[in-house]
Amino acid sequence: MKATILAVGTELLFGQVINTNAAYLSSRLQLLGVDVLYHFTVGDNPARAASALERSIAETDLVITSGGLGPTQDDLTKEIIAEVMGVNLVLDEGVLSSIEEFFREIGREMTANNRKQALIPEGASVFYNDVGTAPGFMIEKNGKTVVALPGPPRELHHLFQKDVLPYLERRTDGVIRYKLLRFYGIGESSLESKLTPLIDGQTDPTIATYAKEGECAVRIASKRKTGEEALAVVDAMEERVKNLVGEFLYSDDDRELSAVVAAKLMARNLTIASAESCTGGLFADSLIAVPGVSKSFDRGYITYSNESKIDLLGVPKDIIETFGAVSEETAVAMAEGARERAGTDIGVSVTGVAGSDGGSAEKPVGVAWICVCGANGRKTKKLVTRDRGRNLNRHIFMLEMMNQVNRYLSSQI
Amino acid sequence: MKATILAVGTELLFGQVINTNAAYLSSRLQLLGVDVLYHFTVGDNPARAASALERSIAETDLVITSGGLGPTQDDLTKEIIAEVMGVNLVLDEGVLSSIEEFFREIGREMTANNRKQALIPEGASVFYNDVGTAPGFMIEKNGKTVVALPGPPRELHHLFQKDVLPYLERRTDGVIRYKLLRFYGIGESSLESKLTPLIDGQTDPTIATYAKEGECAVRIASKRKTGEEALAVVDAMEERVKNLVGEFLYSDDDRELSAVVAAKLMARNLTIASAESCTGGLFADSLIAVPGVSKSFDRGYITYSNESKIDLLGVPKDIIETFGAVSEETAVAMAEGARERAGTDIGVSVTGVAGSDGGSAEKPVGVAWICVCGANGRKTKKLVTRDRGRNLNRHIFMLEMMNQVNRYLSSQI
After folding, report:
1. Which residue of A lies nearest to B390 if distances are taken between CA atoms?
2. How far is CA A182 from the centre of its chain?
3. pLDDT tens-place string over residues A344-382
4. Could you give the domains of chain A?
5. Count of A-B CB contacts under 8 Å
6. Strand spans (E) along A233-365
7. Chain B environment of A300 (Cβ under 8 Å)
8. What is the pLDDT of residues B242-282, one digit of tens each?
9. Which of A66, A300, B27, B114 could pair covalently with B302 via S-S, beta carbons 3.0-4.6 A apart?
C-alpha cells in the first residue's frame, strides 16, 4: 500500500508550528509495511487543499490528513474531503452528544460553531475523540481510503492508535509488534556495524538504528498473522542483538535511562543523594521527573563553587587545592560527602568543565569526573567528550552519571 | 512572490527525522513577505522528485529545496534540478578546492565520491558552505528561481542567512528587521486582544503573537529600503506594544527568562541560592545553563522530603506540621534558610504539588508556593495552574520562580 500524509493548516506554512505529525505517522506506517511516498502541507485555502487531496488520491492508495477539523471558519478539511469524494456532510448524533457531554464536563457553554464538528462525510466511519472535541473519520471509495485526523499531536496519536492502526493491520493482513531497545556508551555507526550480520538481507523482522544526543536506539519490528507470533519473532531477534551489544543496552521498552535508574532504586528500596557541580541539578531534576521517586531520592546538593563543595559536602579544602576542583579526588570526596550527610545508601557526584570558558590544556572543556559510592565500594569514571557546547556537554555529563549509577546497581545484585 | 519548500530525503518519509527546515524557512520567508503555498517532501526517488520539482516550479515563483546534496548515490537533488532546468552539471573548481581544504583540516583522506559535491548546475550561483562540505546554490530561469540547500539544519540556517536572505531582500526590494519580545504572566489570547488596535489593518510593521508553554511572544517585523529604517519602525512599534503590555515583557531580544535573571544578578553583583522541592533542581539547572553565572550562583538545595527541608534548610518541624509542606510558611522558611545558610543576597524557594499523585482537594496538583527574600524584604506567591502533567507543571513552577526573582530584582533598583 502506498500513502500520502497531507497536513492542512496555514500555521504550518507560516512556520509557527513544526509538523511532527508527519514523522509520527510515517514511522508507524513504515512499521506496517505501508510506503509513504509524499508529505504534503497546504494552508487553509479550499482550492489548493482540494487540488492537493485529488493529486494524493490519484497517486497513492491511502491519504491521511491532519488538521483542519476544528469548529472555526478556516477548518475546511471535512468539506474538502466530502467534495473530492463526492458525498454530503451529515450530522452524526453520536458525535454531537459526545461534544455536548464534553462541554458539560468542563462547565462551559457549547457555542453554535461546535455543532460543525459533528458533521461527517456520509458513509464515513467515525473515530470518537476521547481527548478533544474534533472527531476523526475514515472514508473508502473506489479502492482509495482517506483518513482524517485532528491536528493536535496528542489527539492524532490517540486516534491513530485506537482506530487507524487496527484498521490498517486488517488491511495489510498482519499484525505489527515492535520493541525499541536503548543503548548508552556506543555510537550509532559502531552499533550498526556490529549488527550488520543481523541487518543485512533481513526483511522480517526489520532492524533499524537511530541516533540521539549521547545515546542510540535499535527498533526491531515484525509483522505476522498474530501479535503473539510477531512478538515471538521480535523477542528472538532481541536475544541475538543482546548477544552482540547487550553490554550497552539499558532499556528494552523505550524508557529513559533516568527512569530505569529510578525504577531500580525504588524496587530495591535504595536511597541516593547527588552532588552536582557543572550539571547544576540536571541529575536530580531527571530523577525527580519520575513519579514516585521520593521514596529513593529526597535531597541533592548543587555545589558549583569550591566553597560550596567544602561547606555543603565537607570536601577537604586541601583536596581541592592539591588536585583541583575537577579531579578524581574531589569527585570522590563529593560523592562520599553527599552519601554521608544525606545518610543514603548511594552517593553520586560530578565535577567537570562544561564550557564555554574554564577549559585548560590539561582539563579541556568536555572533561568530567564522576563518582558513585555505596556499601559495595566506590567507582570513579573520567569522562572525556568532545566539546559540543555548554548545554549539550552538561546533558552528556548527566547521562554518564545515570549510566554509572545504573552499572553500579547492576553489579550489586 | 509565492514559494514552495521541497524537502528531499527518504529518512523524512520513514519518520526518522522531523522536518524542522520547513518551519525554519517558512518563518523567514513570511518575514520577507513571501507567501509559502506548499511544503512538499519526497524520497530519494528520481522520478517522483523530478515530478514534484516540476509541479512546484509550475505553481510557484521560488522553490527552496533541502537535502540530497551529499556525496552518496542516493543524493540526487542536483541531478534533478539540472534535469528540470535543462542545464548540465559542471565541476566548480572553487567548491572542489574548499572540499579538499576541509578534508586536509580534519586530517582525513577525501574519497572519490566527495568530488560529486563539487558538481553544480551550469549557470548557478554557488553558496560556499563554511560549516559542512555540501555547498548550496541558486539557479534562475524563465522568471523562476530554484534554491538548493543542504539538509542538516545548522548548514541550512547558515547558508540561508549568508546567501539566500540577502538575495531575497534584493528580490523583494527591501530589508527586513525584526524583534522578538517575550512575555510572562499573560496568555496568548489575552495578549492578542490587548494588541488588537495595533495588529488590525497593520501591514508594516507586522505583529504576530506566538504561544509557548507557560509564556508567549510577539514578533514585530518591518521591511524598508534600509536596515536602519526598518529597525526604526520596529523600535517605534515596540514602544507602542510596551505601552499596552509592557508590564509582562521580560526580554526584547528573544532571551530566555533565566538568561535575563542571570544577567541582572551578574550586572549588580548579587548572589542567589535556591531551595527547590518539586522542581528538583530545574531552577538551578536553568541558571547554570547561562555561562559565567558562577559569579552569582554557587549553590542550591534540592529538598524533596520534609526531613531534607528541616536538615538542609533549617525549616522548623512545627511549621511543616502546622501548615503543611506546601504552604506559604514553609516556602518562606525554605527561602530564608537557603539565603542564610548560603550567605547570599537573595534566597528563592518553591514547594508545590507537581503530580501525578499527591494532590488533595485543598492542595490539588498544579498548586505551588514560591518565596523570594533579600535585603528588601520578602515576596510570596501562590501559583495555581491547571494540571498539565508532572513535567510541564514543574517547568511552569520553575518559570514562575524566575519571574518572581526577575520582579524582585526590578523593584530593587
Report:
1. A289
2. 11
3. 999 999 999 988 777 788 888 889 999 999 998 999 999
4. 2-171 (3.40.980.10), 175-251 (3.30.70.2860), 257-410 (3.90.950.20)
5. 210
6. 249-251, 272-276, 297-303, 346-352
7. 280-281, 302, 304
8. 999 999 999 998 899 999 999 999 999 999 999 999 999 99
9. A300
